[in-house]
């Protein structure tokens, strides 16, 4: 009996180990009810180089989006919105800094069964083929997401323009924990997305305000800080007060520059946008009197 027991236990453990992650990896952004899922077919599948994606949100959202990478610049994005006839439109786009992402037709991306609008929820099930040269199917990848509430777009036009996002999110997904047993559509029997406990890290949702903070600091420094400092000397005749004020403005300027650098890095704009290039060149030449 002992050899049989050991054999049975070994078989059961092997079966468990092989199916421990036999379900999609899922993530929902904060309290927004915008959810995303990732699924990898088994290595023996003919679709083994495919990545399956699911985007899901209430129809109160005008559009939702998921993109590759840690910033908009160069990101491959999947934007989903209602088409006005009970289905959804999938618009594949390429990110260019903080400009409106432009539509980019992708022949290896398609909507699959289970997509549509039901119970005030829009769902897009997506198959992305031949992704091994862009996505690490056996490791962790960075992703970004965004969403906008508002009136439905109700269009089949994949190139349509839409308003800027309300909020954004960034996170990483370990696709080694997203392998499923399904050789085809892993979302066929999915109703509501439930977040994974250990496949997704980071995230938290919310708007990134570093760009606005940078702008506010620089506006105060250049519109108030330096001009006030320049008139303190002729008004008060106290060089120490004048110098101290100018030093504070000078320090504030570099703090603003640092915040701007963070904002540019997050948006993928560092030395890609004219404002960033011009500011980086001009700022070091700024001298206090």
From TrEMBL:
Gene3D superfamilies hit by this protein: Cellobiose dehydrogenase, cytochrome domain
SMART domains membership: DoH
Organism: Fusarium austroafricanum
The keyword Calcium is assigned to this record: no
Segment forming the signal sequence: 1-22
Keywords: Membrane, Signal, Transmembrane, Transmembrane helix
Name of the protein this chain belongs to: DOMON domain-containing protein
Residues of the DOMON domain: 32-150
Annotated TM spans: 216-236, 243-264
Biased composition (Low complexity): 179-198
InterPro entries named among the record's database cross-references: Cellobiose_DH-like_cyt (IPR015920), DOMON_domain (IPR005018)
Highest rank taxon of the organism: Eukaryota
Listed Pfam families: CDH-cyt (PF16010)
Annotated stretches, region: Disordered: 178-207
């Amino acid at each position: 009996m002992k050899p049989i027991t050991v054999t049975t236990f070994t078989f059961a453990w092997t079966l468990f180990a092989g199916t421990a992650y036999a379900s999609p990896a899922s993530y929902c952004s904060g309290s927004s009810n915008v959810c995303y899922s990732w699924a990898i077919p088994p290595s023996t599948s003919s679709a083994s180089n495919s990545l399956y994606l699911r985007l899901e949100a209430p129809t109160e959202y005008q559009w939702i989006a998921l993109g590759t990478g840690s910033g908009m610049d160069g990101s491959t994005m999947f934007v989903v919105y209602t088409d006005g006839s009970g289905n959804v439109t999938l618009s594949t786009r390429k990110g260019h800094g903080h400009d409106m992402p432009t539509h980019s037709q992708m022949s290896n991306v398609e909507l699959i069964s289970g997509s549509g609008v039901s119970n005030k929820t829009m769902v897009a099930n997506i198959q992305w083929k031949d992704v091994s040269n862009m996505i690490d199917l056996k490791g962790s990848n960075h992703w970004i997401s965004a969403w906008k509430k508002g009136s439905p777009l109700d269009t089949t036009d994949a190139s349509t323009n839409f308003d800027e996002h309300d909020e954004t999110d960034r996170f990483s997904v370990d696709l080694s924990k997203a392998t499923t047993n399904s050789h085809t559509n892993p979302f066929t029997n999915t109703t509501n997305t439930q977040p994974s406990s250990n496949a997704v890290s980071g995230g938290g949702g919310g708007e990134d305000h570093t760009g606005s903070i940078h702008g506010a600091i620089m506006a105060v420094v250049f519109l108030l800080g330096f001009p006030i400092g320049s008139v303190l000397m002729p008004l008060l005749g106290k060089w120490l007060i004048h110098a101290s004020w100018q030093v504070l403005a000078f320090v504030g300027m570099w703090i603003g520059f640092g915040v701007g650098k963070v904002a540019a890095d997050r948006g993928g704009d560092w030395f890609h946008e004219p404002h960033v290039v011009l500011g980086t060149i001009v700022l070091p030449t700024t001298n206090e009197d």
